[in-house]
């Protein structure tokens, strides 16, 4: 069986792309997104697919990449939406580009009641897990990216970057090489060109093994989430005395869950402050400020989490 047949059969079987279901494909023009677009056309049908390309204007090749995407979509009979972007703010460029891309995709998907498909591969999954382990070690780091996260789907998550390249060659599809992917200026680039090749030298199936482990841990995470739900019973607080009696592993998970609800996003390192939180006084009111603008408070023996109050300075 060819690589193209393997990927197409696997994507159909997983059901993230379905015939006739509208889908917005994030199209950069690289091998992974080119492979994804063709897969989406084959599985969902060209009429159900719309591609989104964001031209950030950051590289001299940006115009060529946009033109490549136009020609590819014309060849495949797919509607293409192009968003022109110019960066005007300082800060993390990658975060800016990611937010802009997904915001544009969300608007397009909303207008069509569509899913959003990203071309993340098993190789990206390994890079993500390794990066998170190094930068913010937590149980969440090992879970990696989900194949479906709301209306965001990642149909190629079981296939490596080598396989998506083979798919494109078998299907006669050209792609654009992003020269920034070869750079080690960013941490992800150093993971890509240093750690991942080292893993392959240790074992040729390293990428698939890491992806399989992440899937197993996500299944087990569902069991842990049920334990947390049962302990909290829908509450957003817990008596400190009760927290102290729980096994440390479950207590850490509960602390992290409660802290995460404050900003509806992960609070970095909250679970690692378990000992400090349990050392708070049961009598009266006591506080502990965490990272991410979150505060742990114990009032008359009950632990809850809120936003850290802003400091008001006298004029």
Short summary:
With 315 residues, the chain is α/β, with parallel strands linked by helices.
List keywords for this structure.
6-stranded mixed sheet; 315 residues; Uridine Diphospho-n-acetylenolpyruvylglucosamine Reductase, domain 3; alpha/beta; single chain
Task: Summarize the topology.
Elements (H helix, E strand, L loop, with lengths): L2 H12 L8 E4 L4 H14 L4 E7 L6 H15 L2 E6 L8 H20 L2 E3 L4 H14 L3 H5 L4 E2 L2 E2 L7 H10 L16 H16 L3 H27 L4 E3 H6 L2 H16 L10 H5 L6 E5 L4 E6 L2 E6 L8
Parallel strand pairs: 1-2, 1-4, 2-3, 4-6
Antiparallel strand pairs: 5-6, 7-10, 8-9, 9-10
Helix pairs in contact: 2-7, 5-8, 5-9, 9-11
Describe the protein's architecture and organization:
The protein is of the alpha/beta class and about 325 residues long. The protein folds into two domains: about 5-210, 3-Layer(aba) Sandwich (Rossmann fold), CATH 3.40.50.620; about 235-305, Uridine Diphospho-n-acetylenolpyruvylglucosamine Reductase, domain 3 (2-Layer Sandwich). The protein has twelve helices and ten strands. It has helices at about 5-15, 30-45, 60-75, 95-110, 120-135, 140-145, 160-170, 185-200, 205-230, 240-245, 250-265, 275-280, and strands spanning about 25, 50-55, 80-85, 115, 150, 150-155, 235-240, 285-290, 295-300, 300-305. Strands 3-2-1-4-6-5 form a six-stranded mixed sheet, sandwiched between helices. A four-stranded antiparallel sheet has the order 7-10-9-8.
The number of helical runs is 12
User: What share of residues are in beta strands?
Assistant: 5-15%
Annotation, overall tally of beta strands = 10
Low-confidence stretches: none
CATH H-tier superfamily of the largest domain: HUPs
Largest sheet: 6 strands, mixed
Rg over alpha carbons: 23 Å
Report strand order across the widest sheet.
3-2-1-4-6-5
Cα(first) to Cα(last) distance is 73 Å
CATH class of the largest domain: Alpha Beta
In the CATH hierarchy, what is the architecture of the largest domain at level 2? 3-Layer(aba) Sandwich
pLDDT averaged over residues: 89
Roughly how much helix do the residues carry, as a percent range? Answer: 40-55%
Shape: elongated
């Amino acid at each position: 069986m060819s690589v193209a047949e393997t990927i197409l059969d696997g994507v159909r079987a997983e059901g993230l792309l379905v015939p006739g279901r509208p889908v917005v494909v994030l199209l950069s023009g690289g091998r992974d997104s080119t492979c994804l677009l063709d897969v989406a056309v084959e599985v969902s049908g060209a009429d159900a697919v719309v591609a989104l390309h964001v031209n950030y204007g950051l590289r001299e090749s940006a115009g060529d990449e946009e033109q490549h995407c136009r020609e590819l979509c014309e060849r495949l009979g797919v509607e293409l939406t192009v968003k022109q972007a110019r960066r005007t703010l300082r800060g993390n460029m990658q975060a800016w580009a990611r937010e802009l891309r997904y915001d544009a995709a969300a608007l397009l998907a909303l207008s069509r009641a569509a899913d959003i498909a990203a071309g993340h591969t098993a190789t990206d999954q390994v890079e993500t897990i390794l990066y998170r382990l190094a930068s913010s070690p937590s149980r969440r780091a090992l879970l990696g990216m989900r194949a479906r996260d709301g209306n965001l789907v990642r149909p190629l998550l079981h296939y490596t970057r080598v396989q998506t390249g083979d798919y494109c060659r078998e299907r006669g599809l050209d792609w654009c090489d992003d020269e920034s992917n070869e750079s080690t200026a960013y941490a992800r680039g150093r993971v890509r060109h240093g750690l991942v090749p080292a893993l392959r030298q240790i074992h040729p199936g390293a990428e698939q093994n890491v992806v399989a482990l992440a899937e197993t841990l996500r299944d087990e995470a569902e069991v842990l989430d049920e334990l947390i739900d049962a302990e909290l019973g829908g509450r957003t607080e817990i008596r400190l005395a009760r927290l102290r009696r729980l096994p440390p592993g479950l207590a850490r998970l509960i602390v992290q869950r409660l802290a995460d609800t404050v900003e509806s996003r992960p609070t970095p390192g909250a679970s690692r402050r378990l000992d400090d939180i349990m050392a708070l006084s049961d009598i009266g009111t006591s506080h502990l400020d965490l990272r991410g603008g979150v505060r742990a408070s114990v009032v008359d023996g009950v632990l809850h989490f809120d936003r850290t109050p802003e400091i008001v300075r006298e004029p």
